[in-house]
């Protein structure tokens, strides 16, 4: 087998019906600036487009990009047979779980009804993507 080339994840792209709004939500939540914000492309509605938040140069972490998905359907969490499921989610480490949940809700997240673990809280962002806060 050949020697693998250098590969590294630099960003995660999240499909959404509201890319610019979602970028601003995660910007508030994570304290990262919105570094790119493009309006709708040809044939897209006003809420279309693309946006990105990026950590500072000295921080090694992936950027988050938000891309308009024409046929986006909000996922159901926890998953239900026959319904749209979340194909991925963000895991966000925190030092104080109750304070982080309070902050996320103040930023616009919703605490999910079902919570599978005591040291993890599942929340939904404004477009329905689940994300986890954990200790």
TrEMBL record:
It holds the Pfam family Glyoxalase_6. Signal peptide: none annotated. InterPro entries: Glyas_Bleomycin-R_OHBP_Dase (IPR029068), Glyoxalase_6 (IPR041581), VOC_core (IPR037523). Residues 8-135 form the VOC domain. CDD domains: VOC. Residues 33-55 are annotated as: Disordered. This is VOC family protein. It comes from Nonomuraea turkmeniaca.
């Amino acid at each position: 087998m050949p020697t693998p080339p250098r590969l590294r994840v630099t960003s995660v792209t999240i499909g959404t019906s509201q890319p610019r709004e979602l970028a601003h939500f995660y910007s508030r939540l994570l304290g990262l600036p919105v570094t790119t914000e493009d309006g709708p492309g040809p044939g897209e509605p006003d809420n279309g487009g693309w946006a990105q938040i990026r950590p500072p140069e000295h921080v090694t972490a992936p950027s988050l990009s938000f891309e308009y998905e024409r046929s986006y359907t909000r996922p159901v969490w926890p998953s239900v047979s026959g319904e749209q499921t979340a194909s991925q989610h963000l895991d966000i480490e925190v030092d104080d779980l109750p304070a982080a949940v309070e902050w996320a809700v103040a930023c616009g997240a919703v605490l999910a009804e079902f919570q599978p673990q005591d040291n993890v809280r599942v929340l939904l962002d404004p477009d329905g993507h689940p994300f986890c806060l954990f200790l």
